[in-house]
């Protein structure tokens, strides 16, 4: 890939990547979203007791949020389509002596896990999906989130300026996507910390309950 094809955020450009191998190759280095610690918005959820029960981190990357949940004594699983990311997550778990499970898995086919979860975390997966895959993703989530369970999501906001990084998401896109079988409890401004900008990226935190 030439320098002209490489975007500021490290993603293959100019087209947003959708293939697992696109993301996997980024873990040869350090992707912009891999900050080496939990996102503050999710850490706040953990500290306030809003992450509970059986926990699934979808698009877990190198595993910081699953490791955070496991560190609280919760049963935590992280999935990602990038084998390199999962390998790093497993290495972190060993180094920190934390019991968390990591799987190479397709977030659009969660039903094949044949498991159910009380809390699902998504930092940065929803906003890279195209429209058709977005609908499949919500259906996939419905297959594993228990009634009364909660889906917590961080995604790029439509208020984030510039055209780098993933697509921007408006609140109404979230409410529309989760209009059937879910209750949107909260959509509030948040921040996603990234390595390429100390100010981070403007984001939405959404908390959504399976009904």
Q: Which properties best describe this structure?
A:
211 residues; alpha/beta; seven-stranded mixed beta sheet; 6 helices; 27% helix; disordered N terminus
Break the fold down into its secondary structure elements and pairings.
Elements: H1 20-26, H2 40-47, E1 54-58, H3 64-71, E2 75-80, H4 83-96, E3 101-104, E4 117-123, H5 131-142, E5 145-156, H6 171-177, E6 182-194, E7 197-210
Parallel strand pairs: 1-2, 1-4, 2-3, 4-5
Antiparallel strand pairs: 5-7, 6-7
> Percent helix among the residues?
25-40%
Oligomer: single chain
Low-confidence stretches: 1-15
Alpha-beta classification: alpha/beta
Query: Which band does the percent of strand residues land in?
Result: 25-35%
- Quickly count the helices: 6
- What is the radius of gyration? 16 Å
Strand order of the largest sheet: 3-2-1-4-5-7-6
**Distance linking N and C termini:** 46 Å
| Element-level helix/strand string | HHEHEHEEHEHEE
> Count the strands?
7
Largest sheet: 7 strands, mixed
Give the overall average pLDDT: 91
Shape: globular
């Amino acid at each position: 890939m030439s320098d002209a094809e490489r975007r500021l955020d490290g993603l293959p450009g100019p087209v947003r990547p959708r293939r697992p191998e696109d993301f996997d190759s980024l873990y040869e280095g350090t992707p912009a979203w891999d900050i080496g610690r939990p996102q503050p918005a999710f850490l706040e959820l953990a500290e306030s007791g809003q992450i509970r029960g059986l926990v699934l981190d979808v698009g877990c990357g190198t595993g910081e949020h699953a490791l955070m949940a496991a560190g609280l004594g919760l049963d935590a699983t992280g999935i990602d389509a990038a084998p390199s990311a999962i390998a790093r997550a497993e290495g972190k778990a060993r180094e920190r002596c934390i019991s968390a499970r990591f799987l190479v898995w397709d977030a659009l086919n969660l039903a094949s896990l044949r498991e159910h979860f009380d809390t699902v975390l998504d930092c940065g997966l929803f906003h890279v999906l195209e429209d058709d895959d977005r609908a499949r993703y919500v259906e996939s989530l419905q297959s594993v989130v228990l009634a009364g369970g909660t889906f917590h999501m961080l995604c790029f906001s439509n208020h984030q300026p510039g055209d780098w990084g993933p697509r921007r998401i408006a609140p109404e896109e979230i409410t529309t996507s989760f209009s059937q079988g879910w209750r949107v409890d909260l959509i509030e401004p948040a921040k996603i910390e990234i390595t390429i900008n100390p100010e981070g990226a403007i984001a939405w935190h959404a908390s959504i309950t399976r009904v």
